[in-house]
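Question (not urgent): is this output format expected?
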Amino acid sequence: MQMETKRLKLIPCTPELLQWAIQGNEQLANRLKVQVPKKWTEFGVEALQYAKEQLESGEEQSGWWTYFPVLKGTNTLVGCGGFAGKPTPEGGVEIGYEIAAKFRQQGLATEFAEGLVQKAFEDERVKFVAAHTLGEENPSTQVLINCGFEQVDEFEDPDEGLIWRWERARC
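Got this back:
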């Protein structure tokens, strides 16, 4: 089910919608009837393919993977993001998000992330929402702070270096 924030429509991806995105921007634009900028995602086709496979693995995964944020005013796809799967037995879900470079510094990432948090908390199983960033202050850490997240841990990732874990508990 599509969600809306003040400026964004958050379109939940189905395997079919992800397949259109994998096939290319023109196919996605035609099927979604939105404008699709050349560089709307840095996550890449591999992430879309992975999400598609997860959604195809079972009905319980529906709504817990990729969302496409579409700017209402211009009907333009401005990024990609969503969840890293259904709630864990402990009641956690993890979010990730990106906004295309030419749409940054407008508060859209904060709006997108907050929309994902609100969607997560609609499910009674969700007790907290987590996110990870590089272990330094950057635009994504500010998005999470703006959305009421707190840094709860840090660890070394062999590929990425220092990583900060953030969480926001259900109120």
